[in-house]
Amino acid sequence: MNSIFSRTLKALCVVSTAVLLTACGGASSTIDAFKPTRIIAFGDGFSYVDGSGYGLSTVRTNEVDNTIAGRIAARASIVVKNVASNPLDTTGGFSYANPKARVADVDSQITAFLASAGGVVAKKDLIIITVGNWDIYDAARSGVTSMDPTTTTLVTAIQRLTNAGAEHVVVMPPINM
In this predicted structure, what is the pLDDT of residue 19? Predict the structure, then answer.
């Protein structure tokens, strides 16, 4: 191949690559960024907090955001507190979680939330669900090999939330057990 042609082709490739990379987001922006007004947590110890927002099933630190729900909420400058000591409001962070909750308990937590919220989830609500660890533990101890009924219960509970208007639902899978 001709060396001038080769150099020209290489230069053209370099310029083309630079143009493409520049077009990929040098001046990017977020359109309609989601900023929740309420964070509602359901589940087990990964979302269980006291009235001040401290996780009771995690290593106690001086941080109030030491649970999964708390850390996500901190990004929105919201502190998640136990709903029993922090009644549901139009803004803030609320946890219905219990330390050893199973999927059946989450279904009950969602029922309690929907009853207190008039069956409606606000457009700017972020729902966080952390559950499954204790269900897997129970299944392993008792020799159960199918999680289908438990999975169906969880999916049905999540569908109740989405049918009530939930647009932003985060479901944290169980830890690798």
Answer: 46
